[in-house]
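Homework-ish question, so no full write-ups if that breaks the rules, but can someone show me the predicted structure for this set?
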Amino acid sequence: MSAGVVLFVDDETRILSALRRSLRREGYRILTEADPGAALRLLEREPVDVVVSDQKMPAMSGLDLLERAGRIRPSARRVLITGWPEEVPPERIEALGLRALIPKPWDDAELKRVLREALSA
Amino acid sequence: MSESTSRVRIVVVLPEVFPGGGQALSDPHGTLSALARLGAAARLERMPSLVAAAEGVRGADLMVVDGAPPEAAAAVVEAACQAGVPVVAVVQREGEAVGWFRLGVSDCVAAGADGSRALAAAALEQIRRGRETRERRSVERRLAWLENLNTTIVNEIPAALVVLDRERRVVATNPAFGRAFGSGTRGRPLADVLPEDLRESAELDALLDRVAAGQIAAPATARGHGAGGRPVAFDLRVQRLDPAGRLLLVLTDVTERETLTRRIRDLQRYNENIIQNLNSALLVVDNDAGVTFANPMAAEILGEPGSDLRGRSVWEWFSTAAARGALLARTLSDGTRFRGAETILSRADGSVLPIGISCAPLVDADGTRLGAVAVFQDLTEISLLQQQVLQTEKMASIGQLAAGVAHEINNPMGFIHANLFQMAEYLADVRRLWAHVGDLQKAVGSGDVEATRRAASGLDEASRDIDADFVLTDFEKAIRESQEGSERIRHIVRDLRDFSRQDRDERISADLNQCLDSTANIVWSMMKHAVVLQKQYADLPRLRCNPMQLQQVFMNLLVNAYQAIEERVGDSGERGEIELVTLLRGDQVVVQVHDRGVGIAADRIDRIFDPFFTTKEVGVGVGLGLSTSFHLVQKHGGVLRARNRSGGGATFEVILPLAPSGETGAAPGDDAEAPSGEVEASRAP
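A: Not a homework solution, just the prediction itself:
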């Protein structure tokens, strides 16, 4: 069963590990990447349906990553995950056509709901 | 003349000695023998010629001319007359006397036996008269000189002089009087001449009455108004001149002196006022540290309000080792000046007070040191405020840190939170398995083979269903990762707690590299996405310091460097470099924070250490960071400097002495004010 391909980007590998754990039973094919550059290269090869990126990362912010991701794979839905949702300019969220913002720490149920919605859209 | 009173000198001119010697008559008319009767008191000087006599007559009491006709003696008689010496001529022929008198001789005596007797008498008479004449002339000369002196004094003296007759009318005035009160006053009553306010203020009429009555009167001062209404003052002295009741009135203009005196008095009062009401304590001590002056504030700060501190030793209050060793004692011993130094004083009641003090040597006009002047303020309130500012500043720094730290805490929180959810599910899975294990146990216990087989198969199925191998492995992994995460949070919280602790002003021996490194670790979390951090630490000896304060300084400098880099790179994703360097320079430890940020604008470089000066947006900094840092470094006897780097960015340098100065506050001497650099900023806040 392939309910979708989800790529998680976060410089914190423990977060990636926890996200994978949370979604274990959702049936997605889950890709994780700690380095934004590597994540963008992965996007070029993999048929990713949803990109979920952390906002605060060294070298590249999540918004920038998602912006580039949109150019590489326009079909991919984009989700930003951040501990400081209020700091993200709303106009940038709109401009990116982001599906959602997920606060960090996240609620498992909400995470699952957002992903389901993103994939069904 | 005193010489001639003891001996009478008589110059005698006798007839020429016959040439060729032989029977020359040396005294044909007995002149010498006649004069010899005058006795030993008369010294006879026989002149060999008329010419010699004319030359030698000066200073003689008498000249006697014998044996020459008047025609031949004209020159010698003239010389004698000019010198004021009387001449007696010995007349040889009848009718010659008229010629002699015409020449100007004082007397003539006939030659011969009778004449020689008369000669002595005539000589005596002429000597007496000559002396009288000379004395009278001398007195006259003295009188003339005195008169001249008197006139000069009267005319030139700046005092106004006026002579009054018995009716108080002006008899005479000098030019100064004329200048002061008008000329042409002779004969007018004094009351018309002197302004009324002057006369009345000095009670002049009464004064004149007393002096006229022969009493002695003390000088009086007359005050009034002169030309243009300006106030004038005169010193008045009155003298009775003669029994006829004439009076001399001397008026000396003392207006200027009075004005100056008043001005000095005003100035003294003014100074006195300032000193008495000064909000600072002012203490003057002699070379033995004895108080010679203390203003009321000094007595108050020293804890003895209202008491007279004169004569007491300042060591009663400045007795601590630090105060004794460094400040007033040094000013007294070698004249060192201090400005704005901080020290403590102890009061008699045992309380101890922080004060800010300035000391300077007290020197007289010749440069001799007479003692010292100390001005000081109670710093209790300021110290408290300072402490508050420090704490405020630290809290503000912590506010800046919080964002970075929160991020650092939020990540582990995020996965611990998610892991806990998942572990709850894992536990539910394990419980399901455990229920099957229970069923299996029961079946085995019952001995029912079929039931046992079914139970085993159920356990198997459930185990496959929940992927038990994975669940158990991942459960363990989730626990391990969560433990790691919570450990990370624990460290962060501990560092923060260390940092935010209210510090006490204590010096301990500390490793400066470690201070710097741990601070860098705390700050690192907020800057790691924008900064590449290089470290280059030298081997440093341990330093006696307040590590918390220095950590605060390092943090301020690091945050500052980070913000400068952020300002330069913006959102470009580029990373800026911060280099931390420690090194040993002579007996100083140097900590450098180099950054490749925006650098310091030239017009700001001398203000960056000012309190509340900030170039940052509202909310980013309160503007106390660098000023506080400067203060903290200064408290360690060190210097904080800033300069721009070639190639962009700035370098901040903390220079700390290895041997602590022992005294907080400013360094002694003219260097008490921190040096201000041209390109460097190292000003006192």
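Now go work out the reasoning yourself. Hint: The CA atoms of residues 82 and 104 of chain A lie 5 Å apart.
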